[in-house]
Protein: GTPase
Amino acid sequence: MVAIIIFLGPAGSGKSSLTSSYSRWLREFLGARIFIVNLDPATEFIPYKPDLDIRDLIDIHRISKEFGLGPNGVLVKAMDIIANEMIYIFEDLKYIDTDFILIDTPGQMEVFIFRDIAIKLVNELKKLSNNVVAVFVLDADVIKRYEDYAFISIMSTALQARMGIDVVPVINKIDLVQSLLIVGDTISDIDIVIENIRNKGLYGEMLSNILNIIWQYAKATRVPRVSAKEFIGIEELHRIIHELTCSCGDLT
Ligand code: GTP
Structure:
């Protein structure tokens, strides 16, 4: 069954670059067939050749003129149009013979995740396959403090609750940082983080408790550290995606 991977994340975190590097890795190392969807109507440049490009269906400049909208308003409007047309946009994908469908989402994560489009997208994709996961791409620069790790875990859990699919947090641009506070293995990381935030009063205690609970229910126990640019860590990312989508592996 086809595996479907949705790349989510804040603006500039490297969603498109990782979509590109991961597709390249899947083709070169597994000989897999890939179908790539660009769902960002406002992007100027993407580093891969999309098989389905939302820009062919939605003209952001026309919408902007027609409704008199600025840069944020036009994106919100575009998301709502895509959400309403979702069934038709993805209709033909059921006839496509491929191993992986990779979906690159809009730059501004909030216009995607806080609107109907995120839910409708997952509903459509679940009609195509039971193997749908999201990769939550974060810039390594975000992780400077122990609290940042708690933030990532909580955000991933929130995304999981919102979308109803497994979410794999990924730290990208690892080539740009000298060292990270975390090692990428959840058990060790949570121990390190809890050790460092536990004594920060009531707030630290609350975060520690939340992390402990998240950990008890977590399926994937690693946070891959990758560089889409330098092609680092892509195999580890794939291993985690594979284990989640084929439900065949021990994730510890
Ligand atoms: P938007 O959709 O426009 O918000 O961006 P995005 O999340 O798709 O990020 P994109 O892939 O466009 O990358 C943003 C910038 O980060 C580009 O200049 C990339 O070249 C750079 N970039 C992406 N991944 C990496 C990486 O692993 N290392 C480094 N050094 N730069 C990266």
